Amino acid sequence: MRRIISILMENEPGALSRVIGLFSQRGYNIESLSVAPTEDSTLSRLTLTTFGNDLKIEQITKHLNKLIEVVKLVDLTEGAHIERELMLIKVKATGAQRAEVKRSVDIFRGQIVDVTSTVYTVQLTGASDKLDAFIGAIGETQVLEVVRSGVSGISRGEKVLSL
Amino acid sequence: MEMLSGAEMVVRALQDEGVEYIFGYPGGSVLHIYDALFQQDTVNHILVRHEQAATHAADGYARATGKPGVVMVTSGPGATNAITGLATAFMDSIPMIVLSGQVRSDWIGDDAFQETDMIGVSRPVVKHSFMVRDAKDIPEIMKKAFYIATTGRPGPVLIDIPKDQTAPNVKNPYEYPKKVKMRSYAPVSRGHSGQIRKAVEELMKAKRPVIYAGGGVIQGEGSELLTKLAHRLNFPVTNTLMGLGCFPGTDPQNVGMLGMHGTYEANMTMHSSDVILAVGARLDDRVTNNVKKFCPGAKIIHIDIDPATISKNIMAHIPIVGPVHQVLEEMLSALDEHGGEPDQKALERWWEEIEGWRKVHGMRYETNENGPMKPQQVVEALYKATGGDAYVTSDVGQHQMFAAQYYKYDKPRRWINSGGLGTMGFGLPAAMGVQFAFPDATVACVTGEGSIQMNIQELSTCLQYGLPVKIININNQALGMVRQWQDMQYGGRHSQSYMESLPDFVALAEAYGHVGMKVTKFEDLEGAMNEAFALKDRLVFMDIYVDPTEHVYPMQIADGSMRDMWLSKTERT
């Protein structure tokens, strides 16, 4: 099962390498990863997606918690949550394709952020499967370049991950 | 406030931590620190002959005393030589501080002479590591390092120190912090009371209980309480390789070591049990055999300070996360409160069954009147010669298993071996660390002709500091454990398991300034042992030739349950 684990950790050099190292060292998989400082500059928020059954995820979270620089963490997929990913994608846009791509962008509520005579650069946000669906709709042959931010997430309601 | 250089701060912090010994080897990037060490006499530096030995010596010191072992190495090869020792300490949860020199801050990343990314290289084998980026931070980093290494589940901590941060001309105010506050590190201080009460109820209901005690009991200073609990309940106790000595080896309730080379009765008791009280043990693969066939009828109560150990390999029915000492104490008072007693009738039947196993297949081996000596006889002779009261360090292989099986450890911290990582070359330097901690104690290093050669250069260190370690070299002229597996699983094809061109160990010991003895006949063994141990102030290297074809039994059959064992070359369960 796919899980989104969100980690609050000390914003210190080497902290990220410990998190990443833990995954490779223990044979766990990271599907996506995003990290940036929070409103408190001493803390970073790291969000990663991984796959595993309950037992494996329990081990992952226990080991993450053991890392000295990890302050707190939550498995967002345990409760109601919002997940978002940002994608910038360059697609071929010539001839009849031009209008077709534009229509798809509108349907997916994306924005065209750069244009040339042959290329549209599209910005799209949403859950990862929505971004996958957009690529499917455009057709892979039309795609020139894709860059995705990795998943960010936050729980719904009053629950917060903070100190 | 006192103004000190970074180098002086490092040394002063060691003094403030009450460090008696630091094991190390100098080199370019730690020279400022060595100069500061030279100008004081509280912290004694022990010069080893290889950095790996420094880590094992500090490790042996830590295992014997419970205090953290401290190491200093230079950058590059000095640091990488410490990796095996870090990994050894990490696997067995031993508190250790390694100070590694680093090239100047402005050279880091430039592939400077003797530069290695030590933080990166050591990352998977340390509990935590620090890089000194500003000399001002040294007191706080040192305090945190000792705190992290010694609290919670202990482990090694590395501090990487670029040379410019220790420069003698840059002074900063020094004050050693009294307390540590870390928002991201708070070791558990108490086990859950509800869980402890639940465990007590389960223990009261048990008809075929067993206490399975590991190294955590020793590390967590829980030996006395565990012994009290076991006596109070009259439950059988089995120890892991790391737990030997946490419950007296000669106690009739002790069914011996369990696992791959555990006793028949220990493995049978485990397999047939209905409740297992696992204390400070990690249910690792050398114990469980095939996890799917592990103790099918048992409910598992698992006490450990590390939540990640619980339900990692085997699901615990009643997990209790907490310090062994505190949890056992609370468990004893919960027993008082409960007021009940375990089912005595059931326990009586259970003990009858266990005694039956003991009688049929207890530890034994065959001797041959005129043939070569057996390695087991050597360990038994050692036990006799030392009155069972020595500190015994060991290397890794058959001799290690014999020393675990045939020497009865009645006290914690007496049996010192690399259980988790299985590091050959551990025994001699570890024995040095123990001897430094207890100069008047009898320290024996049980080793083999393979292992001893992995750190034999330390004979020179032993001479320098007058360490009267007794080396019991169980010489079977082969890598015994490797060969045992080759005999059993590879059709007897002894690929690379011979030790050809062995040195004359007696001459070698003498060349290093020690006493060497060669023993080839059983009838000479006891006399030679007594003679060796009578030389109180000399290192004696006993080169004892034994039967090269001997195997370690019992031996669990791969992929089986705990009760599937070879009991000798021809009998199996």
UniProtKB/TrEMBL annotation, chain A:
Q: Does the keyword Transferase apply?
A: yes
Coiled coil start-end: none
The reaction(s) this protein catalyses:
2 pyruvate + H(+) = (2S)-2-acetolactate + CO2
Which InterPro entries does the entry link to?
A: Acetalactate_synth_ssu, Acetolactate_synth/TF_NikR_C, Acetolactate_synth_ssu_C, ACT-like_dom_sf, ACT_dom, AHAS_ACT, AHAS_small-like_ACT
According to the lineage, what is the superkingdom? Bacteria
What are the record keywords, sorted? Amino-acid biosynthesis, Branched-chain amino acid biosynthesis, Transferase
Q: What is this protein called?
A: Acetolactate synthase small subunit
Q: State the organism named in the record.
A: Alcanivorax jadensis T9
Identify the gene encoding this protein: ilvH
